[in-house]
Amino acid sequence: MFESEQNWELFGYDMRNVGRHFSAAWRDFLWAYDSPVRHRLDEAVRLQSADGVSFYQAGDVCDDVSAQCSAVLLPDDLVLDRLLRMPLAVESELPSVIALEVNANSPFSADDTAYGWRVVGRDEQNLQVALAIVSRSAAMTYVAQQYGSHDPHAQELWVNSNGVKVVIEGFGEGKRLERYRRRLLWVSGLLGGAALVFLLAIAISAGLKNIELGAVQEIAQTTQRDTANASQMRAALGQANEAIAVINELQIAHPSAHLELARLTALVGDDAYIERFSMNGTNIDLRGRAVDASSLMQLLTEQGVYRSVSAASPIRRAPGQEKEQFHLKISMGEPG
């Protein structure tokens, strides 16, 4: 008998209750007041009380919003509230345990009893549950007298119990819960679609990689067959690299005069012109006229491509003109 009982236990846990624990965990994750999902997706509620109007979302106060759901806060004298301490072992069956507790402690008839509950705390061994019990007839009489509503499903009924707001079940909360359920389904559909797209992308990527692998294998086989030609091409490539290196050295020692002339033309602008341009290696001899030759010389000095810019002769005013004559010696820096 001992071995038969222990066959269902793993590391001290009764495996027969795994399904109920799993369902309870998902219920808390999606439907509990402190659920991050519900905090984002739950409908806002406009709460009317003797103190005025306030707005709540997932059981917490929120800013003034456009709320499609409304609730009425019952006064404390219509509410029987208790703070229950229960072992963690009953968490998977908490709704049933709460129903038994209500049946055992309600002073009202079964048809006239309405209740709500909310988990307000937990530790390593126990749960703390705020339980509120009201009389349906007394609650609806209060709503009819204070707010003129005779439809029990037109609004939700809330109460204050042990410092938190508790929703009394069986009234207008079904509309809000249905909207929340539809939002959960919509978000689940989006996540499912995203997962399908992700899996499709992985499948396409794997297919492309397979095609690429086949192409690489074919290239490898072709390369192995043409090893001799590849060796000849490597030798020719080495010679070409040497020729390119020599050409680069020549370009460094003898830059393109056309390129430098175009650069100077762009820098000089419309208020100056070049009369004479000569270039020997990396040295440029430049003559011309400008409205402000000093500014032009300063502009050329600031160019990183030129290592030095100096005046070969003093800048002087051209006879009969508003322009200044300049004669500059320019030495180019490292190419790049």
Which key features would you list for this structure?
336 residues; 9 helices; 15 strands; 30% strand; disordered N terminus; PilN; membrane
Structure description:
- The protein has 336 residues and is α+β, with helices and mostly antiparallel strands.
- Helices cover 45% and strands 30% of the residues.
- The protein contains nine helices and 15 strands.
- It has helices spanning 2-6, 18-31, 36-41, 94-105, 136-147, 173-225, 227-253, 257-268, 293-301, and strands at 9-10, 13-14, 44-49, 52-57, 60-61, 69-73, 80-87, 113-122, 126-135, 156-161, 164-168, 272-280, 283-290, 306-317, 324-332.
- The strands form four sheets. Strands 5-4-3-6-10-11 form a six-stranded mixed β-sheet. It has a four-stranded antiparallel β-sheet with strand order 12-13-15-14, covered by helices on one side. It has a three-stranded antiparallel β-sheet with strand order 7-9-8.
- Strand 4 and strand 5 (60-61) form a beta hairpin.
- The radius of gyration is 43 Å and the shape is elongated.
- The N and C termini lie far apart (89 Å).
- Mean pLDDT is 81; it is low at 1-6.
- The chain crosses the membrane at residues 184-208.
- This is General secretion pathway protein GspL.
- Keywords: Membrane, Transmembrane, Transmembrane helix.
- It holds the Pfam family PilN.
- InterPro entries: PilN (IPR007813).
The strand count comes to 15
Q: Which range does the strand content fall in?
A: 25-35%
Give the biggest beta sheet. Answer: 6 strands, mixed
Span between termini: 89 Å
Rounded to the nearest angstrom, the radius of gyration is 43 Å
Total of helices: 9
Strand arrangement, largest sheet? 5-4-3-6-10-11
